[in-house]
């Protein structure tokens, strides 16, 4: 799982007030698809547009406390339902400025956060790898 996460480069989204989904082809730094304020329709369009045989990584992000917004939370969990293993090679969860913005992802997904920048704390430069292959 760590091999997949190492292939994505973390690019903070400046000035974004919301939540969204970005899909990258493995090794690339520019997303092939990006949606802010994701919905079930937008997410299924992203997944449906991916080319077979390519390696993709997805990043779900939030620039504020997603748990504070019922609509955001519904869209976020819908995206998690749609992005199943086998469709994408890894699903990366990150927050833009609040590491507990998703009602504490560590508790929700029973995963340990990765301190990627090795500064002793999890912050906006860190991500949470939920699954990968």
Describe this structure in words.
With 133 residues, the chain is of the alpha+beta class. The chain has one domain (2-132). The chain is built from 4 helices and 5 strands, in the order αββαβαβαβ. Strands 2-1-3-4-5 form a 5-stranded mixed beta sheet. Strand 1 (19-25) and strand 2 form a beta hairpin. The longest helix is centred in the middle third of the chain and has 13 residues, at 70-82.
Set down the secondary structure blueprint.
Blueprint: H1 2-5, E1 19-25, E2 33-36, H2 40-48, E3 56-62, H3 70-82, E4 90-95, H4 105-109, E5 127-132
Parallel strand pairs: 3-4
Antiparallel strand pairs: 1-2, 1-3, 4-5
Poorly predicted segments: 1-18, 62-79, 84-117, 122-133
Termini separation comes to 6 Å
> From the alpha-carbon coordinates, what is the Rg to the nearest angstrom?
14 Å
Percent in helix: 10-25%
Please tally the helical runs, counting DSSP H or I stretches of 4 or more residues: 4
| Class per helix and strand makeup | alpha+beta
Biggest sheet: strand arrangement: 2-1-3-4-5
Please describe the biggest sheet, giving its number of strands, its sense, and whether it closes into a barrel: 5 strands, mixed
Helix/strand order: HEEHEHEHE
Give the number of DSSP strands: 5
Q: What is the overall pLDDT average?
A: 48
Number of domains: 1
